Amino acid sequence: MQGLKMVLNMIDLTTLEGKDTPGKVKQMCYKAQHLHDSYPGLPTVAAVCVYPSMVGVARKELRSNTVKIASVSTAFPSGQAPMSVKLEDTRFAVSEGADEIDMVISRGKFLAGEYNFVFDEIAAIKEACGKARLKVILETGELSTLDNVRRASDIAIHAGADFIKTSTGKIQPAATMQVTYTMLMAIRDHYDRTGIMIGMKPAGGISTSKLALHNLVMVKEVLGDQWLSNEWFRFGASSLANDVLMQIMKTETGVYQSPDYFSMD
Fold first, then answer.
1. Fewer C-beta within 10 Å: the chain N or C terminus?
2. Beta pairing, strands 11-14 & 133-137
3. CB neighbour burial string for 38-47, b if at least 16 within 10 angstroms, e if fewer
4. Which of these, 46, 39, 34, lies nearest to 1 by C-alpha position?
5. In a 3-state reduction of DSSP, which class is residue 256?
C-alpha cells in the first residue's frame, strides 16, 4: 500500500492530444486533486502535463499548491522547428503559469553526431525556463541503442536538465526497464562525481501498478531512498492512476474493481 500510494504521488497526469479541450483539462485537474473521494487519505498526483495552450486553463483550475503544472514545449513531440519557435513555445508556457517544462531534444541532430547543437539547445531552453524546472525528453525509442541513450543522458545532464525523461509517449518502445536503468546509471555517476541530484521521469508504456512498482525498486537499488519522492522521480502517464486506484481498492476491500468505477480523465 505504501508503494502504491507513492506511485500515485509521483504521477504526472497527462493529456497531450490534438483533440484536447478546456473541458477535458478541467476534468483532469479535478481528478488530480480528487483521485477517488470515496477513499479518504489518498495523496494527489505530482503534476498535470498539458500543451502550452492549456496551461492557463490548468492554472485557473488547480487550487492545491501540491499539484504542479507541467507543459511540453519545443515543438513537442517532433522537435522539428526553428530555435526561435522553441524558445517562444517555452516562454509562453512559463508566462501562462507552468511550473515545469518538458522539452524534446532534436533527435535528428543527435543521430547526425551534432552533439554540441543538442547541448546548446538544452542550455538555451533552460535559460528560457527561468524558475521553472526543466525535464529533457530524449525520445529513447528513436535513439536506437543504449549507448546513444547514455550519451544523450550525459549531454542533457551537463547542459542543465533538472530531470531526464525517456519519451514523449508517441513512439514505441518507450520507457523500457533497460532504458530507464541506463538513464538511472547516468544520474548515479553524475551524483557520485558532483553530489548534484538529477530527477528521472520514465514515460510511455507504464500503465500497470506492477510495472510502476518494478521501477520504484530499481530507483531504490540504483539511486537510493532520497530519490523516492516526486521531487526527484515521476511517472508520465494517463492511465496508470486508474490501475493503481483499482489495486488500492482491491487491497482495502478484498473485492476486484471495475474500470467503470473510476473516471477516465
1. N
2. unpaired
3. eeeebebbbb
4. 39
5. coil
Choose, from 12, 89, 99, 102, the residue flagged as catalytic. 102
**CA distances from residue 136 to 41, 86, 243 in whole angstroms, order as listed:** 32, 13, 27
165 in active site = yes
Domains of the chain: 2-261 (3.20.20.70)
Which one of the listed residues 31, 86, 135, 165 is annotated catalytic?
Answer: 165
What are the tens digits of pLDDT across the range 48-72?
999 999 999 999 999 767 899 999 9
Would you say residue 90 has pLDDT above 70? yes
Confidence band for 123, pLDDT divided at 50, 70 and 90: very high
Q: Which three cell numbers stand for residue 178?
A: 533497460
Tell me the sheet residues that pair with 73.
Answer: 103
Report pLDDT digits (tens) over 94-103: 999 999 999 9
